[in-house]
Amino acid sequence: MARKKLYAAIDVGSHEIQMKIAELAKREPPKVIESIRRTLAIGTDTYTRGEISQPVLESCIEVLNGFIRDMDGYRIGEYRVLATSAFREASNQLYAIDQIARHCGLQVDILSNSEERYYHMMSTWSLMQDFPELIKDGTLIVDISAGSIQLTVYHKGEFIFSQNLLLGSLRIRELLADLERRTANLPALMDEYISIDLSTYHLHEPKGIVYKHLIITGHELAYLSKLADLEEGEVAQITEKSFDKIYHLLLKNKPLDLALDYDIPAEHASLLLPVAIIMRKLISYTKAKNIYLPRISLAEGVLVEYACNDKKYKLSHDSNQDLIAASRQLAKRFKTDKAHNEAVEQAVIQLFDETARLHRLDNRYKLVLRVAAILRDCGKYVNISRHHDRSFNIILATELIGLTAREQTIAAFIARYHGGNLELNDPEFARLMPEDQLVIAKLTALLRLADALDAGHQQKIRQMEFDFDRRKMVLIVTADQDLTLELWNIDQKAALFEQVYGYTVEIKRRKQNL
């Protein structure tokens, strides 16, 4: 019998390094057969000194070499090694990654915050099969990591809002370590420090949502569950009353006491209080009736992605819809023309599908193109006359959970060039890989046409059909209003399409029957 292909995911985190090894079966979630964790507070260096020290890096290399021996024993078929904020924020990340490659032979990919949170959400969706049902009511997801927390709001079945705050448990502990000697009440100091950012978050969060569910994730929750004597399982639930008991226990006991009395590793015991303070504030604020503590991890999220891509495992929740909803919410905040946006988005989807044999890009790029189409006019809120440049900056500065850093860059350039000239000698564009330059040109050409088809912002075109005749793409449009402005805009914007694809564009009009 053939040996099953095994997959591994290694998370080089801020406070620990974790590896999970799993078997994957067709249309099934990953079956984890080995999970190894090694505590190493890499983030202590980064959050206090701005770089990873050589001794800590050597310890990291030692741990990773140990994981390599474990993977060799299992004969792993595919694996990924990912690093988060401890590497992302380190000034010497380039040298650190190179040393790991030289000593371990591993390629470490440093995730952006949005990519990191995406894998956490993948793990959450896989564990909580009832997630689509839960988010029909107001739901706040609090993802607490060592470096920061992510607050994500769902309501009426849709993604509404997400914001990252630099309030991670390890970061708080290290930043306040110097002040600990100056205060007799460290918990009160932590509470005050945490309140500053949470108060700012509440100013910007969506209003009018009644929260019914609170989902809290993070590495330290396993130890809080242990203190609360919660039943072991993939998704634990805790009441506000039970949590209050834990909170007061943490206030009364020093980390060393917790380590000795409750068999909690000392390095983790010192992180529980900042986590509990964050939880207490959000439990009090949301007044949510249901508090869930799913045992998720970044490594598990990576394995879930493998299962989806390689074994056709289907999650109960569609992450692509979250990305589109997030883009629409952002467009709404920047007061774009909703009806015009929807018309351009639908037109560009149809253009992408009908020209598939010309661009030869997969549907992942259709998603990127839709994001660019939705956000292309956000810059008008800042400066109408140069809005495409402002849109470019807004897209790059925004966390779009579900896009890779590369995809987000592509979307930003498409938005920039939909209204401005695509110049190959533009210094920023020239720094991109040639294959990415070509993708941007192909997709920008489609977005320019889609935008021109609703140049008057009146949604005059009711239907569009396509015909390809040799080197000509004929758009047969149905409309009952004057299209002079739209036809003039297409003449202006078709040049890039003709240059990229080698096809001219012709418009034929079919009057709508009334």
Summarize this entry quickly:
This protein has 514 residues and is an alpha/beta fold. It has 24 helices and 14 strands.
Number of helices: 24
How would you describe the shape?
globular
Count of DSSP E strands? 14
Class by helix and strand content?
Answer: alpha/beta
Mean pLDDT: 95
Instruction: Flag low-confidence runs.
Output: none
Describe it.
With 514 residues, the chain is an alpha/beta fold. The protein is 52% helix and 18% strand. The protein contains 24 helices and 14 strands. The strands form three sheets. Strands 8-7-6-9-11-10 form a six-stranded mixed beta sheet, sandwiched between helices. It has a five-stranded mixed beta sheet with strand order 3-2-1-4-5, with helices on both faces. Helix 16 runs parallel beside helix 19. The longest helix is centred in the N-terminal third of the chain and has 21 residues, at 54-74. The N and C termini lie far apart (67 Å).
Question: Main attributes?
Answer:
24 helices; 6-stranded mixed β-sheet; alpha/beta; 5-stranded mixed β-sheet; 514 residues; single chain
Secondary-structure topology with pairs:
Blueprint: E1 6-12, E2 16-23, E3 31-39, H1 42-49, H2 54-74, E4 78-83, H3 85-88, H4 93-104, E5 108-110, H5 113-127, H6 131-134, E6 138-144, E7 149-155, E8 158-165, H7 169-175, H8 177-180, H9 186-204, E9 211-217, H10 221-227, E10 235-237, H11 240-252, H12 255-262, H13 266-269, H14 272-286, E11 290-294, H15 298-311, H16 319-333, H17 338-354, H18 356-359, H19 363-375, H20 387-397, H21 405-417, H22 427-430, H23 434-452, E12 461-469, E13 472-479, H24 484-501, E14 504-511
Parallel strand pairs: 1-4, 4-5, 6-9, 9-11, 13-14
Antiparallel strand pairs: 1-2, 2-3, 6-7, 7-8, 10-11, 12-13
